[in-house]
Structures are given as C-alpha cells and as structure tokens.
Amino acid sequence: MNWAETLRTSWSAIGSHKMRSALTVLGILIGIAAVILTVGLGLGTQKDVSSQISSLGSNLLIVSPGSSTSSTGLRGGFGTGSTLTQADATALASQVNAPDITGVDAEKSSSLELTAGTTNWTTSVVGTGPSYLGVRQRTLSSGRFLTAADVSSQASVIVLGSETATELFGYTNVVGQSVTIDSQTFQVVGVLAASGSNSTSNLDDTALVPISTMASDLVGGTSANSVSTIYLQARSADALPAAYQEAKSVLLTRHGITQASNADFTISSQNALVSTATSVYKTLTILLTGIAALSLLVGGIGVMNIMLVSVSERTREIGLRKALGAPPGAIRNQFLVEAGTLGLTGGIVGAALGIVAALVLPGVIGSSIEVSGVAIGLSLVVAIGIGLVFGVYPATRAARLAPIDALRTE
Q1: pLDDT digits 0-9 by tens, 271-280
Q2: What's the pTM?
Q3: CA-CA-CA-CA torsion sign (138, 139, 140, 141)
Q4: Domains in the chain: boundaries
Q5: Do the Cβ atoms of 234 and 101 come closer than 8 Å?
C-alpha cells in the first residue's frame, strides 16, 4: 500500500465516525488555542508594561527626595522630604559635573483644584520648565510649551493635558482660554498630545505651570525652592550606568554626605523597572503556558483512547487485510496517519481560533495580545506530535494482531 492509498483510507476511516473524530479534535484545538492565547497575552502584557514605563522618557533616571521627619519625630517614607532643590538640578545639568547627562527636568507637583467658569477639576499641577518635553518624551497637540522667559518672569501661563482640558471645557481646542487656581488666573498656552497612562498615573490628566510660579504663587512655604522629582536623561542607553554614578556623586557632594548608605535621595532607572516587570511576566507566561499545555496532554489521551476504540472496532478489517498480504508496517502506518491527521486538524483549527481570539479579546479585556508566529508553529508541530505519539500504541497493537485471531473476532 502506497502513501496515497494510506492517506485515502485513513481519511475515510476518520470521516466514517464524524462525531467521535470531532470530539477528539476538540480536545486538541482547545489546548492549542489556550497555549497561543496564553503566550500572546504574556507577550502583550510585557509590551504594555514596557511601553507604560518607557512613556516617562527614554534612557531615564528618576531622582526622588529622601524621607521627612515631623516635629514629633514621626518619619515619612522615601519621597516625602524636601531634600532636592532647583540648585541640585542646575548642578546635574552641568556638562562638567555630569557629561553623560544630556537633559534635566526638575518638577514640583501638588494636587490642586482648577476652575474654568462653573466647572472645576482636581488634578496634579506640575511646576516645570522648557526641558520637560524633551526629557519626558512628550509632544504638544496645539499651542506652545513653557519657555525660559515664562520661568524667569513667573508668568501665569499653563499647559493642560488632553483629559484635563476635556474635563474643564468639554474639548481640547482650549488655547487662549483661562483657568483659575487658588484665585489666580492662568492663560492656557498649550495642550499636550495624548500619551495614555503609566503604572502609577494618568499622563493625560495633568496641568503644567512654570516652576517659579508654582514655587512662589501656588505652594510657597519654607520648601518653595525644593523640588518633588528630578528626571535625568542619559546620553544613550549604554551611558545610563555612567549617568547614574555621575548623578549620585554630584548629589552626595552637594549634600555633604560621605557615606552613600546615608544618602537623602534615591535614584531609580527605567531599565531596571522594565527588566523587573518583564521578568515577572515571563515567569507568569511560562506558568500559564504550562497549565494550558495540560489540556494538550488531555487531548493526546483522547486521541489514544479513540484510536484504541478504532482498533477494537476494526479488528476483523485488520485481520482481513493482513490475510490478503498487508505487512504490519502498512497497518501501523494507517493508524499513525489517522492519529496524526486528527492532531493536525486540531492544531490548525485551534491556531485559527487562537488568532481570532487574539484579535477580538484586546477590546474586551483592555490588554494587548501579541500573536507569536513561533508559538503558532510550535503548536502545530506539538499537535501533530501528540497525534503520532499517542497513536503509536494503538497502531502497534493493530500491527501485531495475528490474522487468524483477528478474523475470528466477532
């Protein structure tokens, strides 16, 4: 019997038991679709997290102040102190002090209420300067950004995030409009382009004012010259470690600290956050893929069960064919082809179902699903392998049947 005849006979045997074959294929296709979706969800989530973290800026270092201590001795957490100043930011911007740092953005932020006519909205108001756009990798959708002249003159101008503009005015074309903060009127000179959210905040719900205006008119107090955060942009990704060491050395020297362990500031790297998040999601993806693979095992057992039933039902047929001269290898090949065909069919249908689900589900669950060609290819190979591996025993059993015993079977 040649391979063409073997394929025709195998397909005829599968077609003669459509419901049983369909149920066998169902077990495999569910496992294949689950594996493709699990891997795709893991890859998509890694991409989303990396994108969200990187949205703060590329090659970024984030300098945060140390902890605060109240008059009663109660210590706050890191980031609550007033240990960073605009003078620190100026020192870090010096190419002499830190040649691997190409951009510095000092920010002073507070949650304040904005009013436009009869509408009010509470958002994060950030005092910053002209370097914000470059360091934070943001763009404008309309108008202009804050200038050095705005900072030096303590101008009452403001740049709104797209969501903040919509909440206050109902639309984003608001350049030239006015908003009020703490009874002070600010003219809207620009609107930021939408940027989405990161892991901690909505980047489109914000308002930016000159840092000098923020310090003198909106927050003031004894910590008027302090800043909440300093963002540093390294010359390149490779220069990030050097920029880190330069920033640390400059701040330790300025603050008169000789032991790094006593630093009143912390410096975090975007790359470290991305690597940590990616590592976590890779582990989860491997775990979930392993769980999904169990359904493939169940599907494989289903293939073996069906093939054993098929051998039992077709014992007389096997005996007749062997009596007419069919070698054991031909009998074995027929049953292996049947098992492989069931596996391949389940793999193709499962892969198609997984791809369709990957295109539809992101709009439902709000998370990206990356379709991996490698995962699809491996899934098809695994599906065929499952059919063949779990079909070996039934096929071998059929090939070993003695013709006389098979013909006697009722």
Answers
A1: 666 666 667 7
A2: 0.59
A3: negative
A4: 3-52+276-408, 82-263
A5: yes
